[in-house]
Amino acid sequence: MSKKTAFWIFVLGTLSSAILFLALTWDTHRQVEVLSNADKLSAQVIEGKRVFEKYNCNDCHTILGFGGYYAPDMTKVVQRVGTDGIRFRIKNPEKAFANSWRKMPHQGVTDAEIDSLLAFFTWVGEIDNGDWPPQDSTKRMTRSEEIAIIARGLSPGAAVVQNRGCLNCHSLQGKGGTMGPPLDTVGRRLTADQIRQYIKDPKSVNPDALMPPQSDLSDKELDEAARFLAGLK
Amino acid sequence: MHYQSQRIAHWYFRVALLLFVLQVMLGLWLAVNYTFTVPQWIVDAFPFSTARAMHTNLLVLWMILGFMGGTYYITPEETGREIFSPKLALIQLVALVATGVIALIGFLFGWTQGRPLLEIPRPLDFIVVIGALIFLFNVGATMFKAKRWTAIQGTLLGGLTFLALLYLFGIPFYKNEVIDWYYWWWVVHLWVEGAWELVTAAIIAFILLRLTGVERHVVEKWLYVELGLFLFTGITGTGHHYYWIGAPKYWLWFGGIFSALEPLPILLMVIDTMKHVKERKQEIRNPLTWTLAIGGAVFHFLGAGIF
Question: What digits encode the pLDDT tens for the residues B191-231?
């Protein structure tokens, strides 16, 4: 190979990649308008981003997957702990993280700033970003559920019922607890939608229900468990 | 050393070394934060985020000062003449270090741009830009006056210009968090896998040339091939950071394929270094530099290629 050939490898390699990259950049700008709901970027959301930067939150927390990797990801924080939960954590970190290995500093964030921050987090949580981060995904199944599905051939719903402690109170084929009614024929009485609603918030169906709401189940887990139980007839 | 003005490099390296030591100390403090529970009153006074901002900015500063010092050392030998203005080079060093010190103290009091790695507040960014412009002017003027162009110095100047240009994308306030990350990576990724690769490749080529006595056209030929592969894979390879930020899904394909190819040029660099050493035309009089060059190429492959 001559030096001239080598030179052309350099020029063509660089140019082709740069042109491709710039073209994709142009298209990305176009698509991000839709994917990020740019029409909902209100003045308060933008102010919230400034607050997020003012207190250097991003050097501990991650957002959209990037940042300090020291504290939890903020992308879906509204879905995870709710706006009141966020407000409480910012104002009282010493109480919120009293038992935590890692601490959060008092930043002296004003109420107005927190309002903007919440608007910002709410907007970020709606971005169509391929369901990141996985721990906040509504399609999440736990690791032990996944193992039960793959290694033991259980249906996803059966894996949820086994792994989430349903059988501590309820029973199937005589095995399990006696606190709640047996589930063997629950599908005769209730549809999948009714079961789903009951698991999520028992008191909304029966005000005297003793069963606690299963609020830590993901949407996916609720769907699968309800489908499995509705099939028991 | 054949030229008086190469001495400027000493000052750059001394400062860089000092900053490196500071970076390591803060790094140890960060490790403490991961290992033990730090009491609330310390967290309130000196949070993890502040220490991390100082740690990472020290890294960027010492590395850039190292590049600049290296350039001030190499340029006279490549061009065959003294640096255009040694005084400007020192002024530029003082300006950049002063900016760095002000930024570090500012972080302690919460003065920050608040974006990881780009925490230096915007007013200070402009001093950084001025420092970079002085540097590029000084090196460029030396090369233009010499009227002797080599691929090595062209790569060096090109890489450093690219580095300075990319820094500009980190300065604006982006309203949209997705677009913010998009251009954040233009600075962070394209520095590491673009501009820094050019600078590293040029410096390694220079060292090989001096050390092994292999003909210039052979060294420069391989330099071109490496650069072509670096930039071909590195530029579009930026896409491997765009998977989950809210950018279109096709980045999974472009980012995945191009970044899978990224280790190739670095591997070539390692092989090329070994080959030149094997085919050397002269006794290697400075085994320490030789070891450093090979070690640099190998670690570069491990760090930038594998991880």
Answer: 988 998 899 889 888 988 888 888 888 889 989 999 999 99
To test the contact with chain A by mutation, choose from B177, B184, B190, B253 the residue with the greatest count of A C-beta atoms within 10 A, namely B177
Which pTM value belongs to this model?
0.89
Beta-carbon contacts of B305 under 8 Å, excluding residues fewer than 6 positions away, are B262, B263, B266, B267
Please report, as a single letter, which amino acid is at residue B245. Answer: I
Q: What number is the ipTM of this complex?
A: 0.93
Q: What is the pLDDT of residue B142?
A: 95
Q: Do residue A6 and residue B222 have CB atoms under 8 angstroms apart?
A: yes
d(CA A204, CA A198): 7
Chain A closest CA to B63's CA: distance in Å?
Answer: 21
Contact residues on chain A for B113, CB-CB shorter than 8 A: 53
CB distance B228–A127 less than 8 Å?
no
Q: Do A68 and B48 touch (CB under 8 A)?
A: yes
Q: Which residues pair with A73 in a beta bridge?
A: A62
Which residue in B124, B269, B119 sits closest to B188, CA to CA? B119
| Chain A touched by B275 (CB under 8 Å) | no
